[in-house]
Amino acid sequence: MPELPEVEVVRRGLAEHVVGHTITGVEVRHPRSVRRHVPGGADLAARLTGRPITAAQRRGKFLWLVLDDASEAIVVHLGMSGQMLVQPVDAPLEKHAHILATLDSGTQLRFVDQRTFGGWALAPMVEADGSIVPEPVAHIARDPLDPLFDVESVVSVMRRKHSEIKRVLLDQTVVSGVGNIYADEALWRAKIHGGRLADGQSRPRLRALLNDVHAVMGEALAVGGTSFDSLYVNVNGQSGYFERSLAVYGREERPCRRCGAPIRREKFMNRSSYSCPRCQPRPRPRAEVRTA
Predict the structure, then answer these.
(1) Is 134 annotated as catalytic?
(2) Which of these, 28, 151, 185, 226, has the minimum number of CB atoms within 10 Å of its CB?
(3) In the annotation, is 147 catalytic?
(4) In angstroms, rounded to a whole number, what is the distance separating the alpha carbons of residues 81 and 273?
(5) Contact, 39 vs 90, CB < 8 A?
(6) What is d(CA 217, CA 232) in angstroms, rounded to the nearest whole number?
(7) Boundaries of CATH 1.10.8.50 in the chain?
């Protein structure tokens, strides 16, 4: 699933190629891609036609296109394989092009989604945490690249969580935008095993971890994000190159870039976690509490 850097790359592409243009027609080609828009595809097409796109915005991994008077937005769920491609109207259709929005620029904004976990929905804009965001995004915390991200407040929240630190990093209501890849990369930089408890970490250590999250995401953004296959691309169909710089994620048994120990892979929340056994020692098992 695309994480913050990948979604920000897409947002920037949409800001350049789509914002300022008007939607002249919409074709919904797959009902699953509009399942979050409860009234259905015909309603979505009718309500989008004739409306200008005024902004492309993001919070964490959540992306939306603001419409005309800023009272509504198209909330875009990329899911596991969603792509937002800008193509000439007469360009051949991609096999999994499920929504086509024709623009007055003579181009089409195409939502392409091989696995059909993503989709579009029209949602009202509401106030949340001092900003105006779509209603489905109102519960999402600010992300580390947000200018208003408050490190000290987030550290305080993390210190109250009696849960594994990686699980807390992945909690989008605590800090948004972090997924499996960048959680592992930041934890490696901070020399913290993801299984350690958040409330067992000092404030300086949590502060340093969040700084590492910010740094690794910024570096990934600078090279277009991380692309392991053709499912993540920007609006022009180009892949990102941060895979070449990954320190631990996906590098099982390869040497740690810091100490040379072989990277290990462990199961975590129905996915895989990668860490260095030497730089990030596992926490000691907690003794069982026995009752008489």
Answers:
(1) no
(2) 151
(3) no
(4) 21
(5) no
(6) 16
(7) 151-275
CATH architecture assignment, domain 151-275: Orthogonal Bundle (1.10)
Amino acid at 81: S
Catalytic residue among 51, 58, 59, 61: 61
Catalytic residue chosen out of the listed positions 3, 72, 164, 185: 3
List, for residues 35-73, the tens digit of each pLDDT value.
999 999 999 999 999 999 999 999 999 999 999 999 999
Q: Which fold has domain 4-137?
A: N-terminal domain of MutM-like DNA repair proteins (3.20.190)
- The reply to whether 3 belongs to the active site is yes
205-224 average pLDDT score: 94
Q: Which two tokens stand for residue 83?
A: 């792509």
Of the residues 95, 244, 271, 290, only one is catalytic, namely 271
Residue 207, pLDDT score = 98
Please indicate whether residue 88 is annotated as part of the active site: no
How many C-beta atoms surround the C-beta of residue 173 within 10 A? 9
